Amino acid sequence: MKKRNHYRALLALKRVPELGLRRIKNLLNSLEEDDASEIFNMSIPDLLRIEGIGEQSAKNLVQFDSWSDVDRDLDLTEKFGARLVSITESHYPPLLRHIYDPPVLLWIKGDHTVLETDGLAVIGTRSPGKYGMKQAVEWSRAILESGLTINSGLAYGIDSLAHDTTIRNGGKTIAVLGSGIDVIYPAKNRKLVSEMIENGSVIMSEYLPGTAPDAVNFPERNRIVSGMSHGVLVIESGIKGGSMITARSALDQNREVFVIPHPLDHVNGEGCNYLIKSGQGKLVQTMTDILVEISVSTNEKPIHNVNNREKKWTMMTLDQEMISICQTLEEEELHIDQISDKTGLPTYKILPQLLNLELQGAVKQKAGKYFELC
DSSP class of residue 247? Predict the structure, then answer.
């Protein structure tokens, strides 16, 4: 009953006017226990003490009375065979929890444990050519052979090819919808979705049941695809389109962007070549090119071990501050603030030194301004 009340309150928060994800997250962070229903027991003065909650937001919370709609949402969730996962639960995708605007509640169908696996996003145009389709299949197979989960958006073209290749080869995949969990778009992919769920994969959404696949939903969907992934692989894309939006979202989230190069006269590949040319994406030719950039356990042999890491930076000509930073990172990856605490150097001095070390291949920046030795 307590968990149901928690979900009920989270659903209610999604319906409170002018609240938004950041304010909801601040409200949840103010609680001593993992029970969102306590928010609706707060008075206006209590609510006003919470960051981002102004007078109007507080009034909207106190005056909320659409509980019949909330109960209908819960009933529909059960009717469609879906389950809810909140941001505070262990099954919530771990990387997604740390983006700027994570969904506080997800609807999922399938094996929820897949949400905890290490994944790579595979994205691209809805209208791929022969080259793009070939690359999508080959790269999806390579990713699966490395033991990674493939994340994508269930769209026509590259997304669907990635999902389909995964289940045909016995792997796991997660499809993020830009609609309610009961609204499969495009409708042509209903059979694919059924096969995914039967094979232990997952479809998920942040939208209420019944939500139509409106155009405004897809950029929001894309931030989830990139946010839950260790990196994004752009198979084929023009200069404009959803794939470029996802790539930019990945960069904002400190995710790696990997890109397949294309022939110069290939219009559908202009976006890929632009990402490479502008330094926003790394040109990749083999799976190893990806694995050396992401810190995950895979089926491949480790690219570097601890001894290799030590040799790499100790063989470089570094000043004393750089040496101090590298020594600090020997045991584990650290946030920039932790590096500052351990070295005694202010962050304004550490940042340019970390940049120099990154350019020399000694350290690598991860999501959330965490750094580790290469």
Answer: H
- Asked whether 77 and 107 are in contact (CB, 8 A), the reply is yes
Locate 207 and state its tokens. Answer: 């939208």
* Separation of alpha carbons 30 and 47, rounded Å: 10
The tally of CA atoms less than 13 A away on the side-chain side of residue 10 is 26
Contacts of 230 (CB under 8 A, 6+ apart): 95, 118, 119, 120, 148, 255, 256, 294, 295, 296
- Domain residue ranges of the chain, discontinuous segments joined by +: 2-79, 109-291, 306-373
Q: Which secondary structure element, helix H or strand E, spans residue 2, and what is its range?
A: helix 2-15
Residue 234 phi, psi dihedral angles, 5° rounding: -90, 110
For the question of whether the overall pTM of this predicted structure is more than 0.90, the answer is: no
Q: How far apart are CA 139 and CA 160, in angstroms?
A: 14
Same fold, 2-79 and 109-291: no
CATH fold for the domain made of 109-291: Rossmann fold (3.40.50)
**Domain 306-373 CATH assignment equals 1.10.10.10:** yes
Q: Which residues pair with 335 in a beta bridge?
A: 370
CATH assignment, 2-79:
1.10.150
Q: What residues have CB less than 8 Å from 274, skipping those under 6 apart?
A: 239
**What SS3 state is found at 326?**
helix
**Residue 239 zone, left/alpha/beta (φ > 0; ψ -120 to 50; rest):** alpha
- Write the pLDDT tens digit of every residue in 124-183: 999 999 999 999 999 999 999 999 999 999 999 999 999 999 999 999 999 999 999 999
